[in-house]
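HUMAN:
Sorry, I am quite new to this. Are you able to go through these amino acid letters and fold codes? The numbers rather puzzle me.
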Amino acid sequence: MVDYGSRFEGLMTQREMEFLILLAAVPTANGDILEIGSFKGRSTILLAKSAAEFSTSKVIAVDPLEGDALWQSSQVGVSSVANEFYSNIQSAGVRDLVEFHQAYSSQLAGSWETGRKIRLLWIDGDHTAKGVRADFELFFPHLAEGAIVAFHDVLHSFNGPTRVFADQVLSREDVCAAGVVGSIGWAQIQGRARISAEERGRIATLKRRVSSVADTLVEELGPSGWRSILFKLRRASVPHGALDPATWANSVDGTFAPKLIS
């Protein structure tokens, strides 16, 4: 993998970083990339460098840079997060490639320009069910035909991404392709796609398995006791291995895309 940002702090595996680079590099629709949740900028850098090299999409990122419960245990301060984020995107050479909003996603949604379409919605902010649901619902109306929506940590111990991915994304009739790579749950939303019975069955099976994982996550900070064992067993039933780029490109509908991997 080209080193787009692995030297910067963040909680993404190599597999997940490579997949995020792929999502930014291969447009399945016309529009921009929106990242919700930047933390110290690793994913922001990955998206910006990949989009700049392989596509024409603009990267918009939003984060209040205030830290959250996930990072409180490591005693990350507010000023530390903000300072490191700006320093990292500057040293990575992407500050001018990112339209960054130091704000809450709800604030950005309130000022979102009518007609500005999103071709990749990357959600990695508030991990509560309420927060993830709000992020998805706020920006879903702005998705382009054929857009990809992706959530981080759908196979982690937070109930928000897992529950919303299962209940509000995989349950949709217009999802024409979906999967999990590492802990990234992704789906292509295509209103006019003709989805085969085989693909519908595969998505339904994925939904059932992800839902079973979500059912073990009753606490905001993850399962404990016997639920922790059940969580691990059910998580193992969800296919989440690395994807070959060409295979992935062939699995999505590129009808509305300017270019896909050949």
Notes: Strands lie at 32-36, 59-62, 98-101, 118-123, 143-151, 175-181, 184-189. The domain at 14-247 is CATH 3.40.50.150 (Rossmann fold). The mean pLDDT is 87. The first strand starts at residue 32 and ends at 36.
